[in-house]
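re: the backbone from monday

yeah here it is again, tokenized this time
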């Protein structure tokens, strides 16, 4: 046992779950007015403040604004031109972003994609490469013209031509599918170049030559879970909670945030704290009913004869019993023979 009280991580009987919830919930009310008025680069490209906290604790499958921070290997990170080359390999370019317009000729069974030459140059793509992509991806026959590509459909069926047009416009021309639009940034402290992309296909990004796999990360917790497993997802979840609160200049002890992340990932998968996650899976009928859909839980429990063990905090507060934390976590007993030795107080 620790001699110094301050050496204890936590006292026996402390309601660590309630303290963690309160420690995040109370500052969360302060975030409401701040969330939409925070200045700076990060706030313009990513969800921040209370909306971000909500999507994290609700375990939203896809973040509102997915972002991947891509760090580059050694010399590439120091060379702007090489960093730009890596950017072009990653930057997701679809036909819709490089095409001025698309023309359908139903009588001849042809589709013409008019390309924006300025966009092609900026992305480092040639018209021949676009034509080759169409041939390979959609198994169609195309030829290059001065200002674009003409696709021969070999059919006059309106439905087939229209379907092909939609597929062509959605088609990936270059980059990593799901990586989003990428930009180059420079670290003010180290002078190193790194990339920021508006997507979360971290697995595809890591396949690109020149990417530093050890430092590259994303704000998409589920993407990290799929690629690295539940432990990495737990760390990412705790990190994102800390980062979001820090951006708002709100100080919360990281142990509370770690506990929330632990609770959400303890089952081996990521679960939200709402009725479809931790709150909805509680053993106590009263605890489930106290959160949402009260009548549904009570009727279901009555119909199936559920028994509430009353071992949690919420359910005991509801019925007015002593909660099993703090002094309530200690039970006192006395032997019958010792009771007999106690002399009753005399009343004069």
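seq for it, each position gets an aa:
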């Amino acid at each position: 046992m620790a001699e110094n009280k301050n050496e204890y991580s936590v006292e026996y009987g402390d309601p660590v779950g309630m303290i963690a919830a309160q420690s995040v919930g109370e500052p969360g009310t302060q975030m409401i007015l701040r969330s939409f008025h925070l200045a700076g680069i990060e706030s313009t490209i990513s969800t921040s403040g209370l909306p971000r906290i909500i999507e994290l604790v609700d375990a939203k499958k896809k973040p509102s604004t997915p972002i991947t921070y891509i760090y580059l290997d050694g010399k590439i990170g120091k060379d702007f031109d090489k960093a730009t080359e890596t950017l072009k390999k990653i930057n997701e370019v679809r036909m819709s972003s490089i095409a001025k317009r698309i023309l359908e000729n139903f009588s001849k069974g042809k589709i013409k994609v008019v390309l924006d030459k300025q966009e092609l140059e900026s992305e480092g793509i040639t018209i021949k490469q676009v034509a080759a992509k169409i041939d390979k991806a959609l198994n169609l026959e195309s030829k290059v013209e001065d200002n674009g590509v003409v696709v021969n459909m070999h059919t006059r069926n309106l439905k087939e031509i229209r379907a092909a047009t939609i597929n062509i416009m959605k088609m990936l021309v270059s980059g990593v599918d799901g990586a989003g639009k990428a930009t180059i940034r420079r670290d003010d402290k180290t002078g190193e170049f790194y990339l920021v992309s508006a997507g979360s296909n971290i697995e595809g990004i890591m396949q690109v030559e020149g990417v530093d796999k050890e430092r590259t990360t994303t704000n998409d917790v589920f993407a990290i879970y799929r690629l690295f497993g539940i432990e990495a997802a737990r760390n990412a979840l705790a990190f994102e909670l800390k980062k979001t609160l820090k951006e708002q200049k709100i100080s919360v002890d990281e142990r509370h945030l770690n506990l929330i992340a632990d609770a959400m990932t303890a089952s081996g998968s990521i679960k939200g704290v709402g009725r479809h996650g931790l709150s909805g899976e509680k053993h106590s009928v009263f605890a489930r009913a106290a959160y949402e859909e009260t009548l549904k839980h009570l009727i279901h429990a009555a119909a199936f004869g559920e028994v509430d063990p009353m071992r949690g905090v919420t359910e005991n507060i509801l019925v007015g019993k002593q909660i099993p934390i703090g002094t309530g976590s200690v039970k006192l007993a006395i032997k019958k023979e010792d009771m007999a030795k106690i002399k009753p107080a005399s009343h004069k």
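The chain has four domains: 15-52+221-265, 68-90+179-217, 93-174, 282-329. Confidence is low (pLDDT under 50) at residues 35-44.
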